[in-house]
């Protein structure tokens, strides 16, 4: 790390362009993962990663709204914005791989593997659309591979920063930012129902079907209806807007989100960290939808209930219970508070359809996975002892 008083020649005092030039001038040599890295290089690399992930998130948000209005287009503006983020990620993974800087061996492997999965999934998704036409769901196999590749890259970044990154005031903020992006990537498929419920409502003014009032263009509705051999009627529009079973939304949005937030809170290590990550994600969603609406794109419901899931996680973790008791208490509080908040949102604002009978199943799965988190982390972290602090 840099020592002493900063000078005009100190890269840490320069802007992004100057640091970019200095990095290649001073450090562009081949090295193994885990190579000693100046603190300013860590900060520069991770700022670029956060920028890349921001481009990907903005593109993805616009892309989901776009597909509830227009038919798919490979060169649509949202895809291009997302591609900027992907391009920056490709460059950064290449730099980590060549120099070995700002990465551990495991984080480097996660970055490389995640990027490979993503780059394989992208053309598969294009082929899927060419063969099958319109992809009506965010839950398709090709989309799942895109989410998986992105998740692996973000986990690689979290692992690198947590185990070998610099300390200081920026440490929890960078971790928090990375977890917000990870949560967004995890919950992105739920956008299918969050957009779909308002899409369907737009077609039913006064409770009577009128396709001319739908957010989606007529050509998109006709294309979707043709795929299931129907005219543009209620069943065709519902299949287009809400093709996912009603139990999926709460189990993913409450159960899986709670597990992500529990790990996030532990790694960040600050009071109310899980609530902060959930709140930051919800705030982003609350800002992006009116901007999209101003651009004449369909709106979505915002998962406000997620803030209460974060509160539930933090309350249980602050109780300092034995691990088994914490898993049971965490599952119980998350399930009750999360479903209560989701019900209140449905009554007061709007929410996707929910199969309430799934709540006990969510409780059982969260309890089992919460409990399994600690022994699994110990197994993964035997060498090197990296994410032992990140157990659920």
UniProtKB/TrEMBL annotation:
The keyword Electron transport does not apply. Keywords: Membrane, Transmembrane, Transmembrane helix. The chain crosses the membrane at residues 40-59, 79-98, 139-158, 247-265, 272-291, 297-316, 323-342, 354-373. This is Uncharacterized protein. It comes from Actinokineospora iranica.
